[in-house]
């Protein structure tokens, strides 16, 4: 029995599972390795950290199959030379084909104190810890959120609705939130923050983080908690692979999503160097193509010179439970319709994934 090992139960590998399992060849089995026994909805971790959704709302069960084996554990090393995965508990898993979808860590950009003194929403476990810390803050406490990308915006707005008694400061490196998108979108988000008393600190540059202090340029700002949402990088096990990577540390791949000169090792999701910013949708579309490549290689078929271009549809974000914003097909959508659209997308995802 030949083994396809999937590292990480994120959006990309979840799509691979759902596409392969119904017609899995008789000579193949799949081993899925993840730190949790369920699929986590990372796009909703901001709400978990803010305390507006329960833990059960951001979990989906993995599919079941007689030739799908689940292994729960922390991956500490991937030995490509010996085709072996090593876990923190000492277990070793051999593979014939491997898909690495281990996701990312926070990128602290070498800012002193950032790793030690900030909270995270990169994993479900870290999001739970962040929620517990924010929950215990007293009335009038100040929370700094470093990074005004989609995650930072959604966390700031959700936390405002959850804890109207807190002082919230959102630090943005750019001159305006969502600076790479139409100004109408930026203005709408900024107006929501103005209306709901969330302070956006534009043109910021966090140079140091203390136990209760943020240093923006030369200014010190007293805070009671800091959540870091200012960039990502591949997890340590991927960084240690010593494979060719781009400036962000993501692994460079062939047009068929495998590591150059190693057609048995694929990378999906946040760890893959693709011409788009990492997202759940991108990981799913990449997973679709990896399934096609796997099936063709298993059947001895000739692969096309390159795979179809992955075209992103845009993004949808929330501003609390009632408002939202979206950029779809070069069109800006704001308000209640955008929020309903995001809720609908989440509902459809859960329905399609059981």
Automatic annotation (TrEMBL):
One of its GO terms (molecular function) is NAD(P)H dehydrogenase (quinone) activity. Keywords: FAD, Flavoprotein, Oxidoreductase. Pfam families: Pyr_redox_2 (PF07992). Residues 3-286 form the FAD/NAD(P)-binding domain. SUPFAM superfamilies: FAD/NAD(P)-binding domain. GO terms for biological process: aerobic electron transport chain. Its cofactor is FAD. Belongs to the NADH dehydrogenase family. This is NADH dehydrogenase. It comes from Edaphobacillus lindanitolerans. The lineage of its organism: Bacteria, Bacillati, Bacillota, Bacilli, Bacillales.
């Amino acid at each position: 029995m030949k083994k396809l090992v999937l590292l990480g139960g994120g959006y990309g590998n979840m799509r691979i599972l759902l596409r392969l399992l119904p017609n899995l060849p008789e000579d193949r089995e799949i081993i899925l390795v993840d730190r949790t026994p369920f699929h986590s909805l990372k796009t909703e971790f901001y709400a978990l950290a803010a305390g507006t959704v329960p833990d059960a709302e951001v979990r989906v069960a993995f599919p079941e199959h007689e030739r799908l084996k689940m292994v729960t554990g922390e991956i500490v090393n991937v030995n490509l030379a010996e085709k072996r995965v090593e876990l923190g508990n000492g277990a070793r898993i051999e593979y014939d084909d491997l898909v690495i979808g281990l996701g990312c860590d926070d990128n602290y950009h070498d800012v002193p104190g950032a790793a030690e003194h900030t909270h995270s929403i990169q994993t479900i476990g870290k999001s739970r810890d962040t929620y517990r810390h924010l929950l215990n803050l007293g009335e009038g406490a100040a929370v700094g959120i470093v990074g005004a990308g989609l995650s930072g915006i959604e966390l700031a707005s959700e936390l405002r609705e959850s804890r109207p008694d807190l002082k919230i400061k959102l630090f943005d490196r750019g001159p305006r939130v969502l600076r790479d998108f139409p100004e109408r979108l930026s203005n709408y988000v900024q107006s929501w923050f103005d209306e709901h008393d969330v302070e956006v600190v534009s043109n910021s540059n966090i140079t140091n983080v203390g136990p209760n202090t943020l240093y923006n340029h030369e200014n010190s700002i007293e805070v009671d908690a800091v959540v870091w949402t200012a960039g990502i990088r591949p997890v340590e096990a991927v960084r240690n692979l010593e494979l060719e990577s781009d400036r962000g540390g993501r692994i460079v791949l062939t047009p068929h999503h495998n590591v150059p000169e190693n057609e048995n090792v694929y990378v999906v999701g946040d760890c893959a160097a693709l011409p788009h910013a990492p997202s759940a949708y991108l990981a799913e579309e990449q997973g679709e193509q990896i399934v096609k490549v796997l099936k063709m290689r298993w059947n001895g078929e000739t692969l096309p010179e390159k795979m179809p271009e992955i075209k992103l549809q845009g993004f949808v974000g929330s501003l609390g439970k009632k408002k939202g914003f979206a950029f779809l097909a070069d069109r800006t959508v704001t308000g209640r319709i955008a929020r309903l659209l995001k809720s609908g997308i989440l509902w459809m995802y859960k329905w399609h994934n059981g």
